[in-house]
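Section 5.1 Outputs to date
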Amino acid sequence: MIFDFDRVELADVSRDFGRRRAVSRISLSAHRGDIVGLLGPNGSGKSTLIGMLATLVAPTSGTIRYGDRPASDAGPDIRYQIGLLAHELHLYSELSARQNLTFFAQLYGLNPRDVVQAALDSAGLADRGDDDVSGFSRGMRQRLALERALLHRPRLVLLDEPFTGLDDRAVSVVADHVRRLAGGGAIVVLATHDLDLADGLVTRLAVLGGGRLISDEPAGAGLRGRYRSLVGSA
């Protein structure tokens, strides 16, 4: 039976890279249906935090729990329930879009016939499915990589700058997709620099500055002004 969970909790989590502390003593939780916006300037620790939530980076101190299980005991059971879209899109440029999705579907033990065509349709790439990814624009790659991250219907969806390279129409499609994921019970953590896109999409704000959590609060009107006041006072 696949392990499932309804929350993710970070308790006093820090991460050092040599003498540099990238994330310092962050405590944060996210639950089913949340769309948590990780906001903060460059170097504030957003990508490091996403890497730790994805189990790709181990905390130097503190604990991360998925439901009742700590990450240290999780192994592949937890990783199967995580979908990650990072700066590195993890696509093979010499393969077609269909071949990429087929490869990742098989890694997750899925039947490609059950998921690949639907993913291509969702990405708006049904007519480019047999074209090599090397000929795709950044936006097309971004949409394909998002579908790659969601093939296995993960409980925890981690998105690091998911709107990079997307035109206005694609941004709207991705934002609606994120809302559907949360509405279906996923936990979504989304790092972005675009406050206009975050406004009206995220349900909670987790604002970082200098590797520390400045604020964790429900999202509301006037996100840009709230963010500026928090970052300016940090």
